[in-house]
Each structure stands twice: as C-alpha cells, then as structure tokens.
Design a protein that fits this description.
Number of helices: 6
CATH superfamily: LmbE-like
Radius of gyration: 16 Å
Shape: globular
Strand content: 15-25%
Number of strands: 7
Strand order of the largest sheet: 3-2-1-4-5-7-6
Number of domains: 1
Structural class: alpha/beta
CATH architecture: 3-Layer(aba) Sandwich
CATH topology: Rossmann fold
CATH class: Alpha Beta
Helix content: 25-40%
C-alpha cells in the first residue's frame, strides 16, 4: 500500500495507454484516496480511424479516466503529434520537467524503456530523466514488449478489473483493436494474479524506488 495520500502521475504516450497498462491499479489507488494525475501526450488526431471526428480520443479518454476515478481537473491531454515524439523529444522533456515542478509526484508510471513503439520509448527515456529523484514504475504493454521484467505487482479486486474494462470500453473508436477485447484484458490480469498468488493483479517493472 502506498503511504498517506500520494500524488501519482500516469504518463501515457497516447490516450488509452495508461488504462491498458495500469487501469486496474489506477482504480485501486483512486479508491484509496490518492491524488492521481493522468497525462496523455497525444490524442492521435492524424491516426483516428475513418468516420470518426479527429478529436474523438479526447472525448473518449475523458470518459475512460472518469471510470477509473480520476478527477476531471487531473486529466491533461497534450497535443504532440503521434509517431513524431522523437522529433519533439526536447519539448516533451520540458513538459515533464514542468509537471514535476508543479505536481511533485511521489510515484510516476510510464511505459517500459524496452517498449518497441517509438513514442513509448521517448516517454520512457525522457520520463526517467525528468523524474530521476522520484519512484518510477514501468507498466506493461504486452504486444510492444519483447521482454518485460515483472518485478512488482499491484493486487486488484474484481471491482478494479471491472473499472479497467469499463474504461477501455469507452474507446469505441478503438474497439477493433485485439487488445481492447474484454476477455483478453481479464485474462491478462488473471495471469498476473496467478504470478502474484492472488485473484487479479497488474505487473510493473521497478525502474526506481525511493523509500
């Protein structure tokens, strides 16, 4: 259990990454009264499927994070261009430095440094640089990882799993993605629950832990 009322900062390269990697944990921590901020660096306007408004992911992430218990004023959606984070690396780092100064989080969640997606790699690398004096956990995006160290687990109750699935169900524009399937999502948290000796869990790689 996290101490006191911890400020938790979730760094999502794109809308839905935070829910996919840590949605159940976010729901649990919201239940426990922690102060959770969710930052999506891109709403992926240029890659929205045909037939959907270009800003649909902004609407969907608002609904999704509400399902997890994130307060509306704790959601921040930035406007970096999807698949171009490498070009904008310095601006992304500065955004993180500003977040660190303004929020002083006690825990930061971000993608794993070995995540294959180019945008995820930038957020992981620059996040470790910006939050080098903060505890940092990497969340799993299974289809992007050749390897992932399951060095810690957050145990979940059924209601946290349900909240994660409900959050991802808000992304109607993305429901064709195989990883949005509720059966897959439930099997993933069940699998990690078996690893941790509980019913359900999400796994994280400990990149930095400051006690």
């Amino acid at each position: 259990m996290l101490p006191g009322r911890t400020t938790i900062l979730v760094l999502a390269p794109h809308t839905d990454d935070g829910e996919l990697g840590a949605g159940g944990s976010i729901a649990r921590w919201a239940d426990e009264g922690h102060d959770i901020h969710y930052v999506a660096f891109s709403a992926c306007r240029t890659t929205v499927p045909d037939g959907w408004p270009s800003d649909v992911l902004r609407t969907e992430v608002t609904a999704a994070t509400k399902c997890l218990g994130v307060l509306p004023d704790r959601l921040h959606v930035l406007d970096f261009e999807v698949r171009r984070f490498g070009r904008d690396r310095q601006e992304i780092l500065q955004a993180m430095v500003d977040l660190n100064r303004d929020l002083e989080p006690g825990l930061v969640l971000l993608p794993g440094p070995e995540d294959l997606h180019q945008d995820h790699q930038v957020v992981a690398t620059e996040g470790l640089r910006a939050f080098k004096r903060t505890s940092v956990l990497a969340y799993e995006i299974a289809w992007n990882n050749i390897s992932f160290r399951t060095t810690s687990f957050v145990t979940l109750e059924e209601r946290h799993v349900d909240a994660k699935i409900a959050a991802l169900d808000c992304y109607k524009s993305q429901e064709h993605r195989p990883y949005a399937d509720p059966d897959f999502l439930r099997s993933q948290v069940r699998y990690h629950g078996v690893q941790a000796g509980v019913s359900y869990a999400e796994t994280f790689d400990v990149l930095r832990w400051i006690l």
